[in-house]
Amino acid sequence: MTSLSLLNFSANRLAYGTCDLQGISVLVSGMGICLSAQIKATDSPCNSGLNSKPGSRDGTGSKVSTASLPRSSRSEGEILQSSNLKSFALSELKAATRNFRPDSVLGEGGFGSVFKGWIDEHSLAAARPDTGIIVAVKRLNQDSSQGHNEWLAEVNYLGQFSHPHLVKLIGYCLEDEHRLLVYECMPRGSLENHLFRRGSYFQPLSWSLRLKVALGAAKGLAFLHSTQTKVIFRDFKTSNILLDSNYNAKLSDFGLAKDGPTGDKSHVSTRVMGTFGYAAPEYLATGHLTPRSDVYSFGVVLLEILSGRRAVDKNQPSGQHNLVEWAKPYLANKRKLSRVMDNRLEGQYSMDVAYKVATLALRCLSTESKFRPSMDEVLTTMEQLQVPNVNDGNKKPSVDRSRDRRTSEDNAANHGRTTMAYPRPSASPLYA
User: Residue span of the signal peptide, if any (predicted)?
Assistant: First the structure.
């Protein structure tokens, strides 16, 4: 097996998971965005039809640029010239963020800081505070040598793709030593926050919303794996799944994405990078990357959704630190499955449906990649498991004691309240 070292996060490296800076746990999902309670859903029409260049579309509203492939072989100049993104001047982003004022900071990490900003919906020019639309502006630390490659990869992929379940990158700034990225607002933050954050104010996701989020994430991965795109995400995890005001899931952080194998090749050979607890065993052992590597990661996330536990959690009892190793023996037995299920979901689901989700997770987690389903197969199964008429999390659970949770979700949807909070660190980044 390839020798791996799990390195502690340092301030001059890109954060792939969560990190702890100066004792404050913060979430920066790689290139993704974790938005804090400073952003309110009613303040920000995040999905507001921002203009972009035309390209070929499929039946799902997705778009792929007509730029020639493979994308990973293109030079920096070719990437920037062919992207469907606005090139911002530094002065524009200073105006949009009120000169990067400290009270506009939404999150921090090794890559840099994320600032709240405003731009005009149509012209994309900087707007006055509380006018136009809210965006998240990510500024690269100037001493981050690793960050430039991730910054460029983000522009490379999100500059070519548009899909309802991929976070929208609006533009970038490359001026002297300054590198910034401008994203759509994702007011409900990450799936990681909703699954693992505890507190009397912050309420967990309902069963129906968890299925909705899983379906949206599956749609995003299936699009990336399609014959039209052929991209391997490589760092699929809960902190890279962001939620809009209606709990629609969108994949973020394309810093580690790779073009998939082409022709008669079965895999892509690459450095082992990603997040401990989510990476597929064959990828860890050989560095061979395939779309089935993402499927394994999807299985881990599906297990986190079922259990409400992190993929790796040293605070769990001995023998339960690694979620997959602990839970796998229970997934194939309907009578034992209750040991895995999140007890906060009691009364909200039928055991038959939960067992089908667990069975799907088990297939995704197959040790041998050839036994895992494709993301198209996963998507078909997830569509069959959805709760009818789920709208903004307002479907009533079947037990009265969930009324408080339902009220909290309704208030968030109706009054624009964002219950974001930064979680403690979870999984560790992998480097080889």
Answer: none
Instruction: Tell me 343's DSSP state.
Output: G
Residue labelled with tokens 């890279």: 240
User: What is the CATH number for 384?
Assistant: 1.10.510.10
pTM for the predicted model, two decimal places: 0.76
354, 230, 228: which is closest to 303 by C-alpha? 354
Q: Which residue among 235, 244, 253, 294 is the active-site one?
A: 235
Answer yes or no: 235 catalytic.
yes
Residue 185 clears pLDDT 70, i.e. is over it: yes
Residue with tokens 């430039």: 148
Q: Which token pair is 6?
A: 């799990």
- Residue ranges of the annotated binding site are 138
DSSP 21-46: ETTEEEE--TTS----TTS-GGG---
pLDDT digits (tens, 9 = 90+) for 27-76: 334 333 433 333 333 333 343 333 333 333 344 566 655 344 455 567 77
CA 115/CA 102 separation, integer angstroms: 8
Residues 6+ apart with CB under 8 A from 309: 316, 323, 342
Range of the domain at 394: 191-416
Contact 272/283 with Cβ under 8 angstroms? yes
Can you name the residues that pair with 24 across neighbouring β-strands?
A: 21
178 plus 217 within the same structural domain: no
- Residues with Cβ within 8 Å of 245's Cβ and at least 6 positions away in sequence, in order, are 41, 44, 46, 187, 188, 413, 416
Boundary residue ending a domain (152, 184, 216) = 184
Whether residues 179 and 240 fall in one domain:
no
Residue 243 sits at the vertex; the CA angle it makes with 242 and 247, to the nearest 5 degrees, is: 155
Beta carbons within 8 Å of 238's beta carbon, 6+ residues apart: 190, 191, 192, 195, 196, 301, 304
Q: Annotated binding residues for ATP, as ranges?
A: 138
Q: Which residues contact 131 (CB under 8 A, 6 or more apart)?
A: 118
Q: What are the start-end ranges of the H helices in 55-114? A: 76-82, 90-96
pLDDT in tens, 279-289: 999 999 999 99
